[in-house]
Model the fold of this input.
Amino acid sequence: SSDLEVVRKLAPLSGLTGVALAAEAPQPAVVTGDSVALERVLTNLLENALRYSPRGESATVSVAMEAATVVVRVRDTGPGIAPEHLPHLFERFYRVDKARSREHGGAGLGLSIVKALIEAHGGTVSVASEVGQGTEFCVHLPLAGSH
Done:
């Protein structure tokens, strides 16, 4: 399913959090795989971005093609994640901040599952973050027919 469909589905959360969700997908990018799993991955990353961005700001999802890869970037303007946490983010049950996860109802997939689903599709996920500036998750998935 398309990323824009996911953006539409998250409109209520966008309204609730007061964070706009911007999508940039200049051209259609098709990946092969389980559309339900990939939609859950994207939904999870976007929900996090909406939850952690301050009210009145925006979270962004962009989809681009680089060589035989579809690159999806999900960026928030939230508090950012301290460098010591970044290597552990995709570990099972790892929480940056226990209080924060409770406050935001951390019932999402969990980043370890996000990573497993992306890797099952032959892809990779990475994260970059700057405290006070926000966080960006970058997902690389093989373009359909590129294997």
